[in-house]
Amino acid sequence: MAAAGPSERILWAILILLVVGYMVGTWLNRRRSKTIGEWVQAGLGKLGGRVVWRFIRGVASGAEANIGDARPPYRQLTIGYFLLTREFPPLWGIERLRNKTDLLTLRADLRRMPGTPWEIVPLQGQLRRRLDQAAETPLNWLPLAAGLGLATGNPADPALVRRVTAFTERYGTAIERLSLRQRAPHLVAFIKLQAIENRPLTELWTALDDLLK
Fold first, then answer.
1. Does residue 73 have a cis bond before it (omega within 30 degrees)?
2. At CA 78, angle to CA 69 and CA 99, rounded to 5?
3. What is the rounded distance in angstroms from the CA atom of residue 213 to the CA atom of residue 208?
4. Are 188 and 109 contacting, i.e. CB atoms less than 8 angstroms apart?
């Protein structure tokens, strides 16, 4: 049998690295998924209601908890966590270069229709530009902590500004987007897991209660 040439050896090395990367990445995500799932579960008691869990494409990708008949101000919620694709090192590297991160998501229907809709998003970036382009009238923007901005259709009420300022001073570095809408789901949030997973999830529910008053 002829000895493998340089090209073949390189291909074998790449294949071995991909297989090892897949095995290690899958193990890391499975372990992380279990840890985050237990952290979320520990924080659900404060919401009341009935909880139903489901995995997203598999245990290594993340999971969602659906809570029906939740306590006020919520009616029902879907809380999910989505993990980076660590099992595919090249794709994981691309995600990191694009500043992607593990996310906690929240979609909630409220028991009472919100009065004034608003958005909290980064002041710089495509998301703000899309919101400005989609708005029928120019949005009012108020700078907040951590490079975020509050967008409202009319000048923001001072009480709302105080609540939003207090919330973002505590959770600003974790927020990718936080929206209050008049259509369901009324509350939508995308939150960086690494920024909040070291404290109880119940603290976030308390902060959201104060924000939604």
1. yes
2. 160
3. 9
4. no
Tokens representing residue 162 in the block: 């105080």
Distance CA 11, CA 4 (A): 10
3-state secondary structure of 84: coil
- At 117 the three-state DSSP class reads coil
Contacts of 144 (CB under 8 A, 6+ apart): 120, 150, 164, 165, 168, 172
Give residue-wise pLDDT tens across range 84-106: 877 776 766 777 777 788 999 99
65: tokens are: 């908890």
Name residues whose C-beta falls within 8 Å of residue 7's C-beta, 6 or more positions apart in sequence. Answer: none
Torsion angle in degrees (nearest 10) through CA of 103, 72, 149, 157? 180
Residues in the chain: 213
Query: In the chain, which ranges are E strands?
Result: 50-55, 62-68, 74-82, 103-110, 118-122, 140-143, 148-152, 175-180, 187-192
Question: What is residue 1's predicted lDDT score, i.e. its pLDDT?
Answer: 46
Q: Which residues contact 53 (CB under 8 A, 6 or more apart)?
A: 37, 63, 64, 65, 66
Q: Please tell me the pTM assigned to this model.
A: 0.85
pLDDT tens digits, 139-166: 999 999 999 999 999 888 999 999 999 9
